[in-house]
Design goal:
The protein is α+β, with helices and mostly antiparallel strands and about 150 residues long. The chain has four helices and three strands, in the order H-E-H-H-E-E-H. The N and C termini lie far apart (about 70 Å). Strands 1-3-2 form a three-stranded mixed β-sheet, covered by helices on one side. The chain has a domain of about 90 residues: Rossmann fold.
Length: about 150
């Protein structure tokens, strides 16, 4: 049947049926990153709605708030939550690890809270990586046998 504007068109893509999971089999991990520099683009809203939808479908969700303004943390834990210790502080003190940092915020959803130290951590990591990046950009000197 030829495609016309009034006829629905389904591409001819072969369908591979999924093998049903057993009761004991856990779903495979899924990592979703919602990032962008522009404010007001809906990143926090999208992350929260996606987390809720996945939790409703039985998935366990971990939200990691890496926003220097800690918008998601303030939304879920209250306005003063960004003043508490969060992931940025732990990035700056890696020996402390992240154990115990995640907090249950909704059924099936945990939050690794953000804090104001995220910005400092980003600058510290950027400074630590800069020499390695500069070395990679330098042209290699070729040595030829005499």
């Amino acid at each position: 049947m030829p495609h016309t504007p009034n006829t629905p068109h389904t591409p001819n893509i072969p369908h591979t049926p999924r093998t049903p999971r057993t009761q004991d089999e856990a779903p495979s991990p899924l990592i979703v990153v919602i990032a962008g520099r522009k404010g007001g683009a809906g990143k926090t809203t999208t992350a929260l709605n996606l987390a809720g939808a996945l939790a409703e479908r039985g998935r366990r969700v971990l939200l990691v708030d890496l926003d220097p303004q800690a918008s998601l943390t303030r939304l879920l834990l209250g306005a003063d939550a960004a003043e508490l210790e969060g992931i940025g502080t732990r990035i700056l003190a890696p020996q402390r690890g992240i154990a115990g940092l995640a907090t249950a915020v909704l059924p099936g959803v945990h939050l690794m809270p953000g804090d104001r130290a995220i910005e400092t951590a980003a600058m510290t990591l950027d400074g630590a990586l800069a020499p390695a990046q500069a070395a990679r950009r330098r042209p290699r000197q070729r040595r030829y046998p005499p």
